[in-house]
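hiii so my PI (J.) wants the whole complex modelled not just the main chain, which honestly fair. so below is everything: two entries, each one labled with what it is. i double checked the lines twice but i was tired so who knows lol
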Amino acid sequence: MSTVGFVGLGNMGGPMAANLAAAGHEVKVFDLVPELIAGVEGGLAQASALDAASDVDVFISMLPAGKHVAGLYLDEGVLARLPQGALAIDCSTIDPETARRVAAAATDAGIAMLDAPVSGGTAGAQNGTLTFIVGGDADALARARPLLEAMGANIFHAGANGAGQIAKICNNMLLAIQMAGTAEALSLGVDNGLDPKVLSEIMKQSSGGNWALKVYNPFPGVMDGVPASRGYQGGFLVDLMTKDLALAMTTAEQSRSSVPMGGLAKNLYRVHEQTHGAGRLDFSSIQWLYRPVLVGGE
Amino acid sequence: MSTVGFVGLGNMGGPMAANLAAAGHEVKVFDLVPELIAGVEGGLAQASALDAASDVDVFISMLPAGKHVAGLYLDEGVLARLPQGALAIDCSTIDPETARRVAAAATDAGIAMLDAPVSGGTAGAQNGTLTFIVGGDADALARARPLLEAMGANIFHAGANGAGQIAKICNNMLLAIQMAGTAEALSLGVDNGLDPKVLSEIMKQSSGGNWALKVYNPFPGVMDGVPASRGYQGGFLVDLMTKDLALAMTTAEQSRSSVPMGGLAKNLYRVHEQTHGAGRLDFSSIQWLYRPVLVGGE
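here's the output for the full assembly
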C-alpha cells in the first residue's frame, strides 16, 4: 500500500480518490473548494496542495486544463516539494505541449512523471472502470499500475510523455466525427421513411459499424439505458467534447496537420452548444442539430 | 430450382450470376458487352435483355445507375415482357426515387419487385458472401431469399420499396465519414510521434472504435491483407464511393436533410480523386490526403 497525494476532487477526481482509499491506500486529499475535500470518503484532508505533496510515494492530479497543471507542479512548487524518486501522475486532459513541459521539469527534479488522461466519464470514475491512456516510460507505468487498477479497468500505454494526451485527443476527435456522422446518417434515413432501429441494426452489422451504434445510439428510443433515452441527461457533456475538440485543433496546428472532419465536427458541436444551450447535455444530443428530438425529459 | 433472367454482368453481376448457376438454377444471362455474356460459367447466353426476361420465374439486374435501371425495366420493356406474377430484383445501387418509380410500375404490371443493393465488393460477389439490403414487401423477400442466399451471406430487410437504397446510402455515407475521420485521427497521432499500430489499437478498443479500425485500417503497415498494405489496389474504389456520396447528397436534398459531415466527406473524396488521380484506388487511400503514403506498390 502507498501513501498518495491527490489534488483536484471534482466529479472525476473525487470518486477516483475515494476508490484509492477504499483499496487501502493512504490518500492525502486537497482541492481549492473545501467541501470537495470533506466529500472524499476515506481521504485525509490537507490544508494545501503542498501538504498533499509532502511525504508521499505517489502524487496524482485531476485538473481542468493545462494552465492549472503547470500552475500546480511548477508555480506552486509541487515538483520541488515531492520527495526525490516519487512518482507523479497527471490524469487531467490537457494539451500535449504542457504535458511534455511539466514532465521534463519533473525529470530535472528527480520525479518520475506520467500523463494518464482517462475516458469513461463520471460513472467510470465512481465504479472504478475508467480507461487510462498513458504517456511516459514503461518503468514509471509499472509502478503506477496497481494504483491505476484501483481506479480503472483498462490501461493503455500510448508512448513517451505527452503520448497519452495525444492518443486521447485523437480518439475523442474520431468519436466526435463518428457521433455527428451517425446522427446525420440516422436522420437522413428517418427523413426518408426508415425506422431508426432497423437502420441502426443494419449499419451496426455493416461497414458503417461503430462504438456509438453498438453502445451509445444517439437517436431517442433505439437503445435502452443511454443518454438519448433519458433526454440526453448525464453522460459525457457537450462542454467537455468541445474542450477536447479545441485541444485537437491546437495540437493539429502545432504539428501542421490537416483536420477537416475534426474541424467541422468541432464547429457543429459549437453551433449545437450556442444555439441550443446544450453545453450541459450529453454529447450524443448532437442528434438535435439534425432533427427535433426530446431533450431534457425523463 | 428457378429459371432466372440476369442482366448486367460486370465485376459484380458476372460472379453473382455464376453463383446462381452453380447453385443449380437455370440462369439466362445478357449484357451489352458480348464478352461478359460468354464469361459467366454455367449461364445460358441470350441475344437481348427481353430474351432474358422471357419465361422466367425471377429477373435480376445489376446496373451502374438509375437511368440504366429505368431504361431497362420501363423503356426497353422488361416489365411488359416478364410473365405475370414473376419477381424482379434490382441489385443496382441507385437513387431511391427511381427505385420507387420502377417498383410502382412493376406493381401496376403485376410483377413483384425488390430493390436489393449489395455491399461486400467484388470479393463478396465471387465468394457468395455479399450483404443484401432489401426494400420491398416481406412476401416478395421470402420468395427472393433462396436466390439471395446463393449469392450472399447476410440479408437485411430495410422496409418498403426504395428503403434498401436509402439504407445503403446512409451506411455508405457513414462509412465515408468514418474512413476519412479514421485516416485523419491516425495522421494527427503519427504527426505527433505516435505509432499508428499502437494508436489504432487504443482507438479500436475505445469509444473511437469502428469497422475500419477493426478490419480495414487505412494506414499502411498496420494490418495485413487490407488494401492499405498492398498500395491500395483492389477493394472498394474511390470512384464508387464518390458515386454513393453523390447519391446521398441528392437524396438529402430531396428530403431537405442536412448532411454537413457527408458533404465534407464527399468533397474530400472528390479532391483526392481529382488531385491524386485516385479514382481506381481503394477508398481507404483517402489516407493519402492527410500524409504521403505508399500507393500502387505490392
